[in-house]
Amino acid sequence: MKTIRLILGDQLNKNHSWFLQKEDNVLYCLFEMRQETDYVVHHIQKVTGFFAAMRNFAEELIEEGHAVKYVKILDLKNTHSLIKNLSQEIEEFKAEKFEYLLPDEYRLNAQLIEFCKTLTIQNSVVDTEHFYTQRDELAVFFKGKKQFLMENFYRNMRKKHQLLMINDQPEGGKWNYDKSNRKKWKEDTLIPPFKSFDNNVEDIHTEIQKAGIKTIGKINPKYFEYPINRSQALSQLAYFCEHLLIHFGDFQDAMHTNQIYLYHARISFAMNIKLISPKEVIETTIQTYRQQKEEIEISQVEGFVRQILGWREYMRGMYWALMPNYKTLNTLNNTNKLPDFFWTGETKMNCLKNAINNSLDNSYAHHIQRLMITGNYALLTQTHPDEVDAWYLGIYADAVEWVQLPNTRGMSQFADGGKIATKPYVSSGSYIHKMGNYCDSCSYNKKEKTTKDACPFNSLYWNFLDDKKEELSGNFRMGMMYNLLRKIPAEKLFEIKEKAAHIIANPNEY
Ligand code: FAD
Ligand code: SF4
């Protein structure tokens, strides 16, 4: 039966069972479309990386003998609409069947369900064969429970997949080594140079410009650093295991002015577009640990496995359990806009300047920069979660809604009222100082709250707690902070709030 099979830009799984057989009557379709480049303003490296990986994937399929229809961004017949492109191909190929892979994004999932309802030919959908869990597995696991704790889900995943387990007990005796994952990096261990693939993507970059796609951030198209095919993704993983795993856990939450990546794997882009699977990443990492048990501690490997087996699968499950309503939540009723410096990096606040410039230059920031610098600032300044979502969804190469949204709206902005995080991730300058060296070379004084040179995070922090006391003071994890707030004399709190109000009203002055 003549069949059209759709492959979306983040479904580049070479190991999918679809490709086990070469079938003459099957045509694989991949489309570069304005529908996808324009629903938010993306980073130039994100658009380029997606197109480069899609083109490589299509070429590899053709080399292996599969029939492929690849529609480029400047192709004249490109309608830039998924539905119109598909209808065109179905007609031209005289397809009798349409098949697609389960989209990870709610928007595309809904679009394809509607499309199939209009078809007069047969149609079906199959799994992407990428994740450990099925879409609804987390919802089933938490059914009837009041709290959806990641830790409970993670332990269940460890047992179910027998990862870092000795029979029914966690290897090393503890489930979680989070407490050993909080060291400040004091330039006392060597950080190997980061792995770059120096891909030349000038052609694609020129096409994107010719098409007039609006983007943010910088790129050097002669030396594009991200992995854009499976063999590069595998080599990114091998590099992590060989050079970075040894200190991954220790410095997971560390921040440093001279280090963009520290010991992070930089594997999210490759994993999110499915060049490599979480199973491969986790199994290779555990195998490295087993082979080098004398050098690599369990806390390093457990910290890494937790991020992927725990957080990544958990975020996906929460997304599917809570969408579409999740995208509208704003429990703290925040309404402000993000300041202009989120798009320019021009601020005197050294922590924000570093985190934002990393993001603009590399389409990357590591987790703690996303959570405790940019996310923390956005929440303390009471920014509307729609604004925050749009920035995160656009700027990072790894940003696909199923993982970006629960991280941003849930974990970082507490807009879901605590479904994902048990308390808001907010801090004053003292946490930022504890975990990094930004404050050492900042224009602001990390210890002051209200002076002209006071660290803006300090007044913003106490002001936030005061403004949101109705919503947050009952949270048992916030009890200690509210006790401290109550001890601040009324006149001092007034001064703090005046300062915070000025920062919120004039963010670009800071
Ligand atoms: P490493 O630190 O080396 O971690 C290894 C892997 O663990 C990552 O590649 C990722 O797949 C997984 N991981 C770690 N933390 C998380 C998490 N919280 N949720 C899901 N997976 C996790 N990750 C994305 O992939 N896409 C996003 O759009 C995204 N948006 C985020 C927005 C905010 C506000 C925050 C706080 C976090 C976000 N994350 C996102 C999670 C995390 O920051 C990135 O996965 C990580 O920084 C990617 O870099 P890495 O590969 O070097 O990660
Ligand atoms: Fe950031 Fe404040 Fe430290 Fe400056 S002093 S780097 S603004 S936390």
Overview of the molecule:
The radius of gyration is 24 Å and the shape is globular. It has three domains: 3-126, Rossmann fold; 137-322, Serine Threonine Protein Phosphatase 5, Tetratricopeptide repeat (Alpha Horseshoe), CATH 1.25.40; 341-509, DNA Cyclobutane Dipyrimidine Photolyase, subunit A, domain 3. A hairpin with a 2-residue loop joins β6 (165-166) and β7 (169-170). It has helices spanning 34-37, 44-63, 82-93, 106-118, 137-141, 150-160, 202-211, 230-248, 268-272, 278-291, 298-322, 341-344, 350-362, 367-380, 385-395, 401-412, 429-435, 456-467, 469-472, 479-487, 490-505; strands at residues 3-6, 26-31, 67-71, 97-101, 122-126, 165-166, 169-170. The model has no long low-confidence stretch (mean pLDDT 97). By secondary structure, it is mostly helical. It binds flavin-adenine dinucleotide and iron/sulfur cluster. The site of flavin-adenine dinucleotide (FAD) has 27 residues, from α9, α11, α14 and α16.
